[in-house]
Each structure stands twice: as C-alpha cells, then as structure tokens.
Amino acid sequence: MRPRRRASAAVLAVFAVAALILSPVGPATAPVRAAASVNLDQWATLDAAWQNGNLNGNNTRYPEGGIVPFRLAVEGLAKGSHSIRIQYDFTAGGHKAYDFLAKYNGWISPPMCAPSGGAISSMCPKLPASSSYPFPSDSFKTDGLTVAGAEAYSAVVRRLTIWGGTITSISKATHSGPTGGNSSAEFTVHFTSTGSAVLLAWGGHLAQSRYWQLSIGGPRDGAGEVSGSPWHMRTLQLDGSGNRNQDRSIQPSAIVGELPPFALAPPTPRPRPRPTPRPPIVPSVVGTPQPGGGPVPTGPPTSTSLAEPAAPDVRWDLAVLLGAIAAMGFAAALVRTRPSRPR
C-alpha cells in the first residue's frame, strides 16, 4: 500500500474511534426546556393591588381573622406532573401568625388578572376554568388548643385553587420550630399542568386572639400581638429545585382589629318553600241565582236546621175564591128565575 493511502486510512480510523467515544450511550434524551419561573404576589388592601413585595401599614389593613390572598404564577412548565411546597410562619416572636391556609377569596375577592405585582399569568386576561382541592385539616396542638379548632372557629372555606391544571393531592401539614419563638408549617402540593403555565391561589388566615388564647381564659395571642419582625409566606422547591423559591412578608402594623367568630362562614342556603297542598275537589251543585246578583251556591247547604215551609201561592187562592163567588151568584140567579107552584 502506498504511503498516502496508509495516511488516509489512519485518519479515517481516528475519526471513527472519536465518533464512538463521543456518541451518547443509551436512549436519546428529551430536549431541554427553558427553566421554569415562579413569582408570588400578595394583595394590598389600601392600594387595591397585587404587591410583589411586602405588606405594611402604609399599603394594607387586615383584621385578625382576615384572609391575606396570594397568587403564584408558574411559567415554562413541561406538561405533566409537578410538585411545590407552600410554607408559612405559624408563630413569630412566640405569637400565632398565619395559623392555617384558606381559600384565596375567603374574605375579599381580588381580580386574579390585575396587572399590578409580578405574578401575572401568561394565561391572562382570560383564564381557563379553575378547579380547587381542600387543604387537609391540621390537628397540631399547642398551648392547649388545636389548629383544627381555629379552623372551626373561623368556619372559612379552606381550598387551594388552580388554573391551567388540576391538583392531585395535598399532604398533611407538618410543623417545625418552637411555637414559643419562631415556627413554621407547610404543605406539599402535587399538581398536573395541561400546558406550560399554571396559576395557584390561596389565602393565609391571620390568627385570632379570641381563639388563641382568650377562648380558654388565657391572654391574647393572635397575629395582632406580634411586634417587631414580620412573618412570612413562602413557596419552595418547584419539582425539587431549590433555586426557585419565593418569600413575601407582612408587618405587624398592617393588622388592625379582629373579626368575630364564624364571620367568614359560607352563607346558609335558604330552605325551599314547600308547595301548598291543594284542597280536595268536591263536585259542585249549581244553584239558582240569588236576588241582587249574589253568588251562586256551588255545593250542598251546610246548615243542619229544618227547611222552612214554602210560602202559599196567593194567585191560586184568589182564583179559587173568585170561582166560588161566581158559583154562588149563578146558584142565586137560578133560584130567582125558578117558577112558583100554585097553591
């Protein structure tokens, strides 16, 4: 073999070995999508707008027992199953803060596609139909009272709402940290997206002192008693990824007053009126029209007294009398005209 041909064969062999080394082993991998994004807003009542930052006394007023609405816009998802954690501060500085989660519009109803804030879904302005899933009741007990008792005391609806997918499950609440200081609770949410975007909405219930601890004769311990540092709502680890976390806080200055118990209970539906029973149908008897245009009797007489005798017919009696007089006159005339017998 000539030297030039040998060199060409060697070059081809090197390229073949390199191609085998660099080729992927196993099945082909799916194309990589753009990284998903997560954005969390909370509703500012005085501004009447979604706030992508923190709430304070300048932009918000909420009472103890009120519901702070949150919306979470998730974009860039692959169609299919996903998970995310929702975490909230249960106590702040030893006082109850957000004691449970509820429906986003349990107290006020903010527009989900309002252009304020940062969590504006790509599905806006016309969101698809929504669905919701109940938050499991929280049996956690502290200071002699349970969170389930606070849920019943408020009576607000407790559901997580989703647009662009369906919620498949929500774990039971888990608590961590000392309730005498700063502690938190969280749920893990599993959902299925029907496209690349999902919008989630829920509310944080501000703990009520009338339940914590006044209901058992203790001191006030609701959200209005928190001083100094704010407390937080967070979303963590979309599909296990730690770099897509969100955190929003509320200052104690935003809490004013308190709602009464059961103030947020859904209205009781009014009972449907029962149909009035119809009276039994009785065959009617047509009577003689009454003098003066009175009503016509339509049934048998109801009186049990004996009927009065009918009035005598005067016309008949007069005719008989006149006939008798005429007969008497005719008889008298016959007597006068009768011939007398000779004596």
Question: Can you offer a commentary on this structure?
Answer:
This protein has 343 residues and is of the alpha+beta class. It has a domain at 37-258. The chain has three helices and 18 strands. The strands form four sheets. Strands 1, 2, 4, 7, 8, 11 and 15 form a seven-stranded antiparallel sheet that branches. Strands 5, 6, 12, 13, 14, 16 and 17 form a seven-stranded antiparallel sheet that branches. A two-stranded parallel sheet has the order 3-18. Strand 9 and strand 10 (145-146) form a beta hairpin. Residues 11-33, 285-316 and 330-343 have low confidence and may be disordered.
What labels would you give this structure?
3 helices; alpha+beta; disordered C terminus; 343 residues; seven-stranded antiparallel sheet
Determine the structural class based on helices, strands and strand pairing: alpha+beta
Number of helices: 3
Main sheet characteristics: 7 strands, antiparallel
Count every beta strand, where a strand is a DSSP E run of 2 or more residues. 18
C-alpha-based Rg, rounded? 47 Å
Based on Cα principal axes, name the global outline.
Answer: globular
Strand content: 25-35%
Please trace the helix and strand order, writing H or E for each element: HEEEEEEEEEEHEEEEEEEEH
Q: Whole-number average pLDDT? A: 81
Low-confidence stretches: 11-33, 285-316, 330-343
Helix content range: 10-25%
Terminal Cα span: 208 Å
Question: How is the topology of this model organized?
Answer:
Layout: H1 3-22, E1 37-44, E2 49-51, E3 62-64, E4 67-75, E5 80-92, E6 95-96, E7 98-102, E8 130-134, E9 141-142, E10 145-146, H2 147-154, E11 159-163, E12 165-170, E13 174-176, E14 183-193, E15 198-206, E16 231-236, E17 246-250, E18 255-258, H3 314-337
Parallel strand pairs: 3-18
Antiparallel strand pairs: 1-2, 1-4, 4-15, 5-6, 5-14, 5-16, 7-15, 8-11, 9-10, 11-15, 12-14, 13-14, 16-17
